[in-house]
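job 3f2a | input accepted
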Amino acid sequence: MCRYRAGVLTVTSVNVNGLRAAAKKGFAEWLAGTDADVLCLQEVRAEPKQLPGHVGAPEGWHVVHAPAAAKGRAGVSLYTRREPDRVRVGFGSAEFDGSGRYVEADLPGVTVASLYLPSGEAGTERQDEKLRFMGEFLAHLKGLRERAAADGREVLVCGDWNIAHQRADLRNWRGNTKSSGFLPEERDWLSQVLAPEAGGYVDVVRALHPDVEGPYTWWSYRGRAFDNDTGWRIDLHVATPGLADRAVKGYVERAATHAERWSDHAPVTVVYDL
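job 3f2a | predicted structure (274 res):
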């Protein structure tokens, strides 16, 4: 018997670009209307006590917030309809566990995580930090997959991965070959995450939409990027193969107009038939 509503698990991930600001622009209304069973948020940029109750601890949800030690930066959260069996903040990194970039929860049959991978900036210390994070995190992903397999569980890591893996994942790829987020070493790292002989994970939305440009999930606020759909696909559902095979629908909840956006990212939702 399936342990989720209607025989499916619906998971949504979104970088809110500041949850307090997003709540004032339409996130609260979106949250009240979503059918998701699990919600993964990134770049929350707030302490739990700073959030209004209907956003930070809404009725009908179990919520864990993992804010960054540096106030007003990063921060990830998980909202689940059912109470998790276990919650873990961070992935055992002395450098990054206090940075508000990773939280995971065990639900029946699956471990779900919210990830905010550092954005980086080519040629700077920020990029060095991103590369250090990536190195530690790949080791965690491998260990997490192995532990889950031993327990008969699947894994789903959702979030802002801040890497466009392929040319199809950003509109202006030619102009960004030297930009953080599309550097060869970043793309190669994500290839390792997704290689069967290495990380062993699957990019779920790409697997569902193998031959399309995008669907993009982030558009700069500058210029007319949103109106022209000049975006990047950097918000991903990355799952173990057993769960990825059960994905029946994946889509980006793109706002109808620029004025209706409550973040520079859009929610990415996948329905898993369990």
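job 3f2a | The CA atoms of residues 115 and 159 lie 5 Å apart.
job 3f2a | closed
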